[in-house]
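User: Show me a protein chain along with its predicted structure.
Assistant: Here is one chain, sequence first, then structure tokens.
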Amino acid sequence: MEAAKLSSKNQLVIPKPMRKALGVKGGDKVFFVLRGGVVYLLPHRKSLVDALKGAARGRLRYPTGYLKAERSAW
């Protein structure tokens, strides 16, 4: 767990291990999302593909053989 101090100008410095884990550097944009009293820090991705990468991992389940049948129909 990392800690940061809020400055008198209401600025935060994101600790280095967190910046590295998020893949952000100086000048990059980040989003703060508040859900149920918990703040999530999300990196802003320039590419929609990068932003959605892994978003549906483990959520999409097709019936057995469905994708094979669809691909062969092309």
